[in-house]
Write a structure and sequence with these properties.
The chain is an alpha+beta fold and 200 residues long. It has helices at residues 7-17, 21-30, 35-53, 84-87, 90-106, 118-133, 139-157, 172-183; strands spanning 60-67, 73-81, 163-164, 167-171, 188-196. The strands form two sheets. Strands 1-2-5 form a three-stranded antiparallel sheet. α1 (7-17) packs across α2 and α1 (7-17) crosses α3 (35-53). The N and C termini lie far apart (64 Å).
Length: 200
């Protein structure tokens, strides 16, 4: 069926998604004019494109500083992309700022799960095992309980797995993936430092 998609619908989807006119029109046709469905189509396409870009070198970018009002808390973030051009866009700067504010609020222990110090994980595992044993359940179930708690610990404490403070329906990884699909370049959080008065 050849649907007539109005320019207004295309504009609305474009404003919401940041994706080009032609892609918006295609998505609306695919979704039979349903804006919500079309947005989902764009998100899925964007994520697929973002995953293809994930292996590319990200050697440009910025070091961004965020000082929380009151000057008792600050964050330094190194966010990388592929070109200087993207590093200077408002979208990239907004993303960097959002991630800095998120780090200030949640105090993650590392960027990725693989970076978490094994002594921290061992300590957590020990505590969870002790707690699970008190339930009197069989070992196989205890192991599953400990695994589940460790996974939850990583989701709450690892930057890329945390739910974004301004929109908990998204993780920080989702936030970055969304920007990758808009900007067309791989974006990587390289490192961060969080400073708080009175904390070592």
């Amino acid at each position: 069926i050849n649907m007539s998609i109005s320019a207004q619908e295309v504009k609305e989807l474009r404003d919401r998604s940041g994706v080009g006119m032609m892609d918006c029109k295609k998505a609306l046709i695919e979704a039979n004019g349903d804006l919500e469905k079309a947005f989902e189509v764009l998100r899925k396409n964007g994520i697929a494109k973002a995953q293809k870009k994930a292996g590319r070198d990200a050697k440009e970018g910025s070091v961004v500083a965020y000082i929380h009002p009151g000057a008792k808390l600050g964050v330094l973030l190194e966010l990388n992309c592929e070109t200087d051009f993207v590093a200077n866009t408002d979208d990239f700067k907004d993303l960097a700022n959002d991630i800095c504010m998120h780090i200030a609020a949640t105090s993650p222990i590392s960027v990725k799960s693989e970076d978490v110090d094994s002594t921290i994980l061992d300590k957590e595992k020990e505590i969870y095992t002790e707690q699970a044993k008190q339930s009197g359940k069989p070992d196989a179930i205890i192991e599953k309980m400990v695994e589940g708690r460790l996974k939850k610990f990583l989701q709450e404490n690892v930057l890329l797995e945390q739910n974004f403070v301004k929109d908990p329906s998204k993780t920080i990884t989702d936030l970055i993936t969304d920007k990758v699909s808009v900007l067309g370049e791989n974006i990587v959080v390289n490192s961060f430092s969080r400073f708080q008065i009175g904390e070592k």
